[in-house]
Amino acid sequence: MTTRKWLLWTTVIVVGVLSYLGWKFFQPRKLAEGFASSNGRIEAVEIDIATKTEGRIIDVLVDEGDFVTAGQILARMDTEVLMAQLREARAQLRQARSAVETAQSIVVQRESEKAAAQSVVLQRAAELDAAKKRFARTEILVKKQAASVEDLDNDRAAFYSAEAAVNAAKANVAAADAAITTAKSQVIESKASVEASKARIERLRADIDDSALKSPRDGRVQYRIAQPGEVLGAGGKVLNMVDLADVYMTFFLPTAAAGRVKMGAEVRLVLDAAPQYVIPARVSFVADVAQFTPKTVETAEERQKLMFRIKAQIDPELLKQHIRSVKTGLPGMAYVRLDPQAEWPAHLEVRLTQ
């Protein structure tokens, strides 16, 4: 009987001690001077995966919650119309190149015509010179009564005719110059059409490439906004994802504490879902306008205080090492070191998963 009583009392004492130790362990630790704390939630930059051009969704290749890497194809759009436009643009390019060749051959032809016209000018100029001399001689002979007036009239007419022929030949040269200018402008216009067709082909190729919607960076899919078969306009949202390289916790501190927070100050994050880990971060933003505490704060006293929003950014290099373990939306506590000389307490030393 004595032994039973002793065992009973021993059991009661052990249970009491363990209960007390457990109660002490789970009691919130009081922070030393030079620190401040507040509750918050892990957040990340959200990215909408949207269409560049209007069209029908052929397939969505990921589900909500999937981890995706930069450059991974997430969804595909129907490219049938774009492919038809690309074939049309290629045909227009061939037509424009042919027009360039035709215009260039016309330039060569017009330049040949100009050369021929210039030869005619030289020929007509020689004929004019001969007619002029013959007319001058006939005038002298008429004065000496060695030639008839009729001969003089004929030579005068021949001279004027030769002069008109020279002017006509020069006009033909000028017309040839104008024709060359027109032909060269057609070459320039045709070359511009070639460049326009090339640009259209490049744009269509880019649109076809963009029809495969890719992840811009490593992250996690949050929502499937659209489904295969739906028709979306340009800019229509298909997926929403979070950038796991840009993760932070937003929390609020009262005026007295927020005023002591420096940009770049060290922060320790402890998540409710994993209290055994302590995640290092740094202050990347302090609001310059005070606001009331968010609705998640429980006590009336805290609700009445004006609070400042603060953002603690987790190092992107650290995130890369644990990127598949990163979860957004998790609540936790943020501890800020207000005094750079203050030593972190043992329970807030950095502890990470291996």
Automatic annotation (TrEMBL):
It comes from the Bacteria. Gene3D superfamilies: 2.40.30.170, 2.40.50.100, Helix hairpin bin. The chain crosses the membrane at residues 6-23. Residues 76-106 form a coiled coil. SUPFAM superfamilies: HlyD-like secretion proteins. Keywords: Coiled coil, Membrane, Transmembrane, Transmembrane helix. This is HlyD family secretion protein. It comes from Candidatus Brocadia sinica JPN1.
